[in-house]
Amino acid sequence: SFDMFFAVCAVIDFIFLVDLVLQFFIMVPKRMAVGHQMEHRQSVIVVNYLKTWFAIDFISIIPFDLLQLVPQAEQGKTMKAVKVIRLLRLLKLARVFRASRVIHRIETSASISYGRIDLLKFFVILVVITHWLANLWALTLQLVEEGDGVPRWIDAFTEQEQS
Fold it and tell me: How far apart are CA 37 and CA 31, in angstroms?
């Protein structure tokens, strides 16, 4: 069904599509004998992009959310399809690794001290790692069923609410 999450994913896919097109026109740094120089020849930029990030970018803009709307005949196929779609969505995270290049460009053009930049990077990494650990902690609830007799961390909260 169409919901807010689906709309947000569609907007993100559109932004990724625009980014994919723009990458064919953005100059890339070229290593020189002394330092770097920005490459402005269109053919070199296109070949460089096709050899590096194009495949990941192209796969990441495929709207896998639309595949969930296709009705499946069997429940087992539906579950497998959902798992595959979730796995393919992870490819969008690969684009985050490219963000370091954008951050480097901002660092060189902005007059921000290295101390402030390092502090900002520290807090961003801290938030990301905290998010990942919270997700892993919540995942432990999925690994053990409630009726298995194995104590889970959420059971302590349930007992406190009941008393």
Answer: 6
Choose among 28, 35, 74: nearest CA to 50: 28
Q: For residue 42, what are the contacts with CB-CB under 8 A and spacing of at least 6?
A: 24, 25
The first and second tokens of residue 54, run together, are 């194009």
Q: What is the pLDDT of residues 26-82, one digit of tens each?
A: 888 888 888 888 899 999 999 999 998 898 888 778 776 676 666 544 445 555 666
Q: How far apart are CA 39 and CA 46, in angstroms?
A: 11
Give me the helix-helix angle, 153-162 and 114-143, nearest 10°: 80
Alpha carbon distance 36, 121 (integer Å): 25
pTM here is 0.53
- Please name the amino acid found at residue 22: L
149: left (phi over 0), alpha (psi -120 to 50) or beta: left
Residue type, 78: T
Residue 119, both tokens: 């502090």
> Tens digit of pLDDT for each residue in 94-133?
666 666 666 676 667 777 777 888 898 899 999 999 999 9
